[in-house]
Every structure is written in C-alpha cells, then in structure tokens.
C-alpha cells in the first residue's frame, strides 16, 4: 500500500506541476456571488462498488485543461488494497457537469484467506490466495457544485473488465464445484461500477 500511495503522490505532483504551467485562470459564472476561480487541484474522498478508489478511499484529481483532468485513487477493497488512475473528459467548463472517463485499476489481493465455499466434499473451509488483479474500466460521471468555493460532489457509473481470469489459488486439498467457482468469479474485481465522492478544490 505504501508503494501504491507513493506512486500516486509522485504522479499527482508531476502532473500538478504541468497543470500549473498550462492551466489558464478562469472564473466560474458571470461574476456574481456564486463565481469562483477554478481550482488547479482537487483532493477528496470516494466510495462505492467496483469504485476505482475501492469501497472507501481517497482521490486526487488534477485539471490539465478546463475540460480534461487526470485522476488517481487509492483505498480499501474486498480484494486487498486498490489503486486506480483515470483520464476524464468533461462536457462543462471548470471540470464540471457530465464527464466520460477511462482508466486502469490494480488490486493487491490477499494471502491465506479462509472462506466457506462449495467443494466436491460439500461446504468446507477453504484457504485461498486472492491474486493481484489489473482491470480496465470506462465510466460516466456527473459533477455538481458543492458550496461557493469550487468544491464538488459527483456520482459515477461504469463497467470494469478483467484482463485475465486467473483470480485465486487454493492452498489446501479442496476442489471447488462449479458453484464455488462461480462464487469466486463474482467476488473477483470486475463488473458494474457505482460510486460517489466529494472533492475539495485547492491551489487556486
């Protein structure tokens, strides 16, 4: 987890440096009381099912232009720690409104996990290693203003696809039935994505 967090922070710092040079200042709105300067960096929290940041995690989103950003997430999942990277294209200025995203996620897996599963000997306690998994995903986001300082709330839906089906290894002398294999396939990362998050704008 420390290595994943370090990589995300390094990416965020390098992209933020680029964004500060290339991201033009912009005032949202028409100068009224709800007008604000678009942030150059968002830091927030995220949660969901098959969410790039896990069941619960944190997110860094770096606007590169008014309608494109690079996002990195890390958190906890049912398949170990999880990290994800995503590029987002927005249909509204100041990185707002609807957005399309595509990216990659990585789950670290878990070792020596004890699970009750259907086997050829009946339901039994099976020791398994959940293997690291890399997925690609596509998502649709909707971003809303949160307050008057450029903060955001967002909801997300999408689909995550596994790059392979080598999901686990059984450590004791059991063989799963078809039903047991189906259970492990459902538990493995991948499938319908649903999530939400709060992001707080910094670096005006």
List its salient traits.
alpha+beta; 3-stranded antiparallel beta sheet; 15% helix
Describe this structure as you would to a colleague:
The protein is α+β, with helices and mostly antiparallel strands. The protein has a domain at 2-30 and 43-109 and 134-165. The protein has helices spanning 2-22, 178-187, and strands spanning 27-28, 36-37, 41-49, 56-65, 68-77, 80-92, 96-107, 110-119, 122-130, 133-146, 151-162, 168-170, 191-202. The protein has an eight-stranded antiparallel barrel. A hairpin with a 4-residue loop joins strand 10 and strand 11. The longest helix is centred in the first third of the chain and has 21 residues, at 2-22.
Indicate the topology:
Elements: H1 2-22, E1 27-28, E2 36-37, E3 41-49, E4 56-65, E5 68-77, E6 80-92, E7 96-107, E8 110-119, E9 122-130, E10 133-146, E11 151-162, E12 168-170, H2 178-187, E13 191-202
Antiparallel strand pairs: 1-2, 3-4, 3-13, 4-5, 5-6, 6-7, 7-10, 8-9, 9-12, 10-11, 11-13
How many H/I helices?
2
- How many beta-strand runs? 13
How do the strands line up in the largest sheet?
3-4-5-6-7-10-11-13
Distance, first to last CA:
30 Å
Strand content: over 45%
Helix content: 10-25%
The succession of helices and strands, N to C, reads HEEEEEEEEEEEEHE
Average pLDDT figure: 85
Question: Gist?
Answer:
The chain has helices at 2-22, 178-187; strands at 27-28, 36-37, 41-49, 56-65, 68-77, 80-92, 96-107, 110-119, 122-130, 133-146, 151-162, 168-170, 191-202.
């Amino acid at each position: 987890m420390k290595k994943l967090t370090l990589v995300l922070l390094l990416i965020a710092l390098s992209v933020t440096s680029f964004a500060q040079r290339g991201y033009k200042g912009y005032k949202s709105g028409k100068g009224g009381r709800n007008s604000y300067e678009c942030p150059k960096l968002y830091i927030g929290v995220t949660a969901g099912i098959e969410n790039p940041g896990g069941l619960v995690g944190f997110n860094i989103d770096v606007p590169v232009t008014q309608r494109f950003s690079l996002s990195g997430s890390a958190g906890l999942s049912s398949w170990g720690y999880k990290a994800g990277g995503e590029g987002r294209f927005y249909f509204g200025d100041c990185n707002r409104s609807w957005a399309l995203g595509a990216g990659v996620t990585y789950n670290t897996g878990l070792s020596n996990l004890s699970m009750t599963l259907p086997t050829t000997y009946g339901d039994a306690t099976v020791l398994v290693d959940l293997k690291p998994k890399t997925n690609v995903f596509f998502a649709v986001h909707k971003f809303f203003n949160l307050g008057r300082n450029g903060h955001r709330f967002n909801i997300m839906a999408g689909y995550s696809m596994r790059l392979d089906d080598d999901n686990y290894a059984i450590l004791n002398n059991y063989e799963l039935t078809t039903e047991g294999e189906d259970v492990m396939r459902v538990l493995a990362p991948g499938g319908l994505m649903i999530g939400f998050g709060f992001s707080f704008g910094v670096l005006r």
